[in-house]
Design brief:
Blueprint lengths: L1 H22 L1 H41 L6 H12 L6 H11 L6 H14 L4 H15 L5 H12 L6 H14 L3 H13 L5 H13 L4
Helix pairs in contact: 2-3, 3-4, 4-5, 5-6, 6-7, 7-8, 8-9, 9-10
């Protein structure tokens, strides 16, 4: 008797499943189709991103190879276009190449390129902080105290691995201006931070003990 009940229950369950698929056939087909479209779309986007990355890498490498033979303006145009691709790898590399080779003399144009990368490129947070720090470093000989702090405060007031670098830059800035008390406060903050870079700590201690011990 129990076996007969079990068989009936199994047949009933199977019939319900069969009826569910029959009654919802269109919905199931549409659902599966949507899932397939999403998967294919995702894989297509990844493949496009991969191919675009390869294209940018080739452009950057060819530009470096031809740097000595191409005229300066051609190189600047190629690098500027590469920066505006907003690629997290090759856009920063293109900007560094411009700066390292002194290709653009206009400080405002360089800062515009920094801002293009910082504001428009999808960067890892710490990579973004590094580029912000490099922007401040680039401008440290020209900018006022308030301008430098405006650039660096998002890093200084965070737990970024670059916060000690930003503090050291400001400490050196004030030391060069002979504003020793301000410099001292930045160097001391480096020592107090738990995540300060070890080399930066050594440099800060050296400044404090050798030059700011009074």
């Amino acid at each position: 008797m129990d076996e007969e009940v079990t068989i009936i229950d199994t047949n009933t369950r199977n019939e319900k499943i069969k009826n569910f698929f029959i009654n919802n056939k269109k919905k199931i087909i549409i659902g599966i189709s949507i899932i397939l479209v999403v998967i294919i779309g995702y894989l297509s986007i990844k493949e496009i991103e991969k191919q675009n990355k390869i294209k940018l890498a080739n452009q950057f490498n060819i530009m470096k190879i031809n740097f000595d033979t191409d005229d300066k303006q051609t190189t600047i145009n190629q690098l500027t276009n590469l920066i505006k691709e907003n690629d997290p790898t090759y856009s920063p590399l293109a900007l560094y190449f411009i700066i390292d080779n002194n290709l653009i003399d206009d400080q405002n144009k360089i800062n515009d390129l920094f801002d293009e990368i910082i504001n428009e490129t999808n960067l890892d947070e710490e990579i973004k902080n590094l580029i912000i720090y490099k922007k401040a470093l680039f401008n440290s000989d020209f900018y006022s105290e308030s301008d430098l702090l405006q650039i660096l405060n998002p890093i200084i007031n965070s737990k970024s691995i670059w916060s000690s670098h930003a503090l050291y830059l400001m400490g050196e800035y004030f030391y060069s201006k002979n504003e020793k008390q301000k410099a001292k406060s930045f160097f001391e903050k480096i020592i107090s931070l738990s995540n300060s870079n070890s080399d930066i700590i050594i440099k800060a201690n050296k400044r404090l003990n050798r030059d700011l011990s009074e």
